[in-house]
């Protein structure tokens, strides 16, 4: 039997960056907010014994349990999809704070070009620059309109950095100075400058100094321990929702957090949502939580899945090109270059998640694409994240996989290898999409989400170009041997690549081509707001978190307006 609970103003489905921001902003204004998180509670106290590579980086302590819920995957619509039995290509976070706990901390603003990519591309290169099967579209908002929300997120999390010489305009500097300059970051910058490029320090949520944000929450200075990616921060120095927006929401007295609460369906009357149904994963009890407004603030995959399962919005059909839920799934490509040094040694085993330097010269439309068979590009960076001994053992590609020579070269190159990598933009393609799997179900009897995705010619051409530019920088850095990365012919769900999935519930200016408007309000259900990277109409050349955070503040503003006036906000 389902237990029906008293109605509240707002319920959030997921309590990470987006759910925490929505909760904090609306609870500060007096609205009663319930946050439903299907994982367990977490705080800095849980990470006091965090420096365990096997437990966290290999056994995925902070990640989703794929024996209970996963996705299915195929490359093409005519293939049978199979479940991802172990986390591979991307790592789906679970628990209070979500992926905001185990991220590295790179925090960029997407470029002005990203928000108006279709109109800017067609204006400069013509309507036929990309093929008809690439479903690129503008986001229904401009970089200039997004500026105040970027600024608010950066001040909330205390970003340490310096502005990009090429990026979009900023009203003022970052809240805290850049992280330390190291031998490795300086060498990258010097080489980039010699090639006529414009390097700068990565904007980092691993803070260079102790900082108190506008809500009064303190974020501590980074200790450069090297345990950021896949780990929580016991110092409270890698900004996370758990040390910023969630405590802010809790202090208002208007926010109730419920952990171990797995939402399985949105209840609605066809035009408005009325409640969410969730399962207490510890007891198996089912509950209905009514609310005036519902914010889907979980990960990309789950936001899309919930709408499809709940039959809210029109599912995307790749054959006709109609429908919007599941449309424009995008990933990222990761071109780069590895440099092997015979005589020089580097301390790559110390660092921080977002300690590094980058160039934007081959990102967005900062370079001429007239004679190139792709659009966009990627940021090219060197990062000193703190390599860990179990998962890092780089040797030249002609080295045997075992035996005396493998051992000798493993020892020799242990601290003589540097990597330059890029986050390459991903353009939406007609046959890359999300829908429900007709065969497989999760532990609660709900259909699994099915991912249909493969690399496109756009991906492969961009990859080759940016990888070659990365190799040029590595050669200028003085590497004795440079190995340029190569893209696979087909995407595979293993090994790990990046957790930067986007799309599925995309934003835009018209309901015919998008699921939500520029306040992240659903066209088909005015009291439902779908917040996160699921709203991205394509994926850019950066880590998505900064843009996710900015959109969450935009959505919070929209939800506050809706609470007062109702109706469509645009």
How would you explain this protein's 3D organization?
There is one protein chain. The chain has 570 residues and is an alpha/beta fold. The chain has one domain (2-565): FAD/NAD(P)-binding domain (3-Layer(bba) Sandwich), CATH 3.50.50. Helix content is 23%, strand content 19%. It has helices at 17-28, 53-58, 99-102, 112-115, 117-125, 143-157, 183-194, 245-251, 300-309, 404-412, 457-476, 545-565, and strands at 2-4, 8-13, 33-37, 71-74, 82-83, 199-201, 211-212, 218-219, 255-259, 261-268, 273-280, 286-296, 327-330, 336-340, 356-359, 378-383, 417-424, 433-441, 447-452, 481-484, 502-504, 528-530. Strands 1, 2, 3, 9, 10, 11, 12 and 22 form an eight-stranded mixed beta sheet that branches. A six-stranded antiparallel beta sheet has the order 6-15-16-17-14-20. A hairpin with a 7-residue loop joins strand 4 (71-74) and strand 5 (82-83). Helix 1 (17-28) packs parallel to helix 8 (245-251). The longest helix is centred in the last third of the chain and has 21 residues, at 545-565. The protein is globular, with a radius of gyration of 23 Å. The relative contact order is 0.20. The mean pLDDT is 96. Residues 428-552 form the Glucose-methanol-choline oxidoreductase C-terminal domain.
């Amino acid at each position: 039997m389902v237990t029906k609970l008293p109605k509240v103003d707002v319920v959030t489905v997921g309590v990470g960056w987006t759910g925490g921001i929505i909760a904090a902003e609306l609870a500060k204004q007096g609205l009663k907010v319930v946050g439903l998180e299907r994982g367990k509670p977490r705080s800095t106290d849980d990470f006091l014994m965090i420096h365990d590579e096997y437990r966290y980086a290999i056994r995925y302590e902070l990640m989703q349990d794929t024996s209970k819920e996963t996705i299915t995957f195929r490359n093409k619509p005519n293939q049978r999809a199979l479940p991802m039995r172990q986390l591979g290509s991307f790592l789906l976070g679970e628990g209070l704070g979500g992926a905001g706990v185990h991220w590295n901390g790179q925090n960029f603003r997407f470029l002005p070009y990203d928000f108006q990519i279709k109109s800017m591309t067609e204006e400069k290169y013509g309507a036929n620059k990309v093929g008809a099967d690439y479903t690129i579209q503008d986001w229904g908002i401009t970089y200039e309109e997004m500026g105040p929300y970027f600024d608010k997120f950066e001040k909330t999390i205390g970003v340490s950095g310096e502005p990009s010489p090429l990026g979009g305009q900023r009203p003022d500097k970052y809240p805290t100075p850049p992280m330390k300059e190291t031998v490795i970051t300086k060498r990258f910058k010097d080489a980039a400058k010699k090639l006529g490029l414009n390097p700068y320090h990565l904007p980092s949520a691993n803070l260079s100094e102790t900082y108190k944000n506008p809500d009064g929450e303190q974020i501590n200075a980074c200790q450069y321990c090297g345990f950021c990616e896949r780990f929580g921060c016991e110092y409270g120095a890698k900004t996370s929702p758990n040390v910023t927006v969630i405590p802010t929401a809790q202090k208002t007295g208007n926010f109730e957090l419920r952990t171990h609460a797995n939402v399985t369906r949105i209840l609605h009357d066809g035009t408005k949502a009325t409640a969410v149904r969730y399962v207490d994963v510890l007891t198996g009890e089912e509950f209905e939580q009514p609310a005036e407004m519902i914010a889907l603030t979980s990960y990309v995959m789950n936001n899309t899945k919930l709408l499809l399962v709940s039959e809210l919005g029109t599912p995307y059909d790749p054959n006709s090109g109609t429908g919007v839920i599941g449309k424009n799934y995008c990933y990222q490509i990761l071109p780069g270059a590895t440099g092997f040094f015979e005589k020089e040694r580097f301390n790559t085993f110390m660092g921080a998640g977002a300690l590094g330097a980058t160039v934007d010269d081959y990102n967005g439309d900062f370079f001429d694409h007239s004679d190139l068979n792709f659009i966009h590009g990627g940021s090219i960076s060197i990062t000193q994240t703190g390599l860990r001994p179990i998962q890092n053992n780089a040797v030249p590609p002609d080295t045997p996989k075992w035996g005396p020579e493998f051992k000798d070269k493993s020892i020799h190159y242990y601290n003589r290898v540097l990597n330059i990598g890029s986050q390459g933009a991903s353009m939406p393609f007609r046959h890359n999409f999300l829908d429900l799997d007709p065969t497989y179900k999760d532990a609660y009897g709900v259909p699994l989400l099915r991912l249909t995705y493969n690399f496109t010619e756009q991906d492969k051409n961009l990859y080759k170009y940016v990888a070659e530019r990365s190799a040029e920088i590595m050669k200028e850095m003085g590497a004795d041997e440079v190995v340029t990365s190569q893209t696979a012919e087909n995407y595979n769900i293993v090994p790990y690549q990046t957790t930067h999935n986007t799309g599925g519930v995309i934003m835009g200016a018209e309901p015919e081509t998008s699921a939500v408007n520029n306040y992240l309000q659903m066209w088909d259900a005015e009291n439902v707001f779908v917040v996160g990277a699921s709203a991205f109409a394509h994926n850019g050349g950066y880590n998505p978190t900064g843009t996710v955070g900015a959109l969450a503040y935009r959505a919070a503003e929209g939800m506050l307006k809706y609470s007062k006036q109702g109706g469509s906000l645009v």
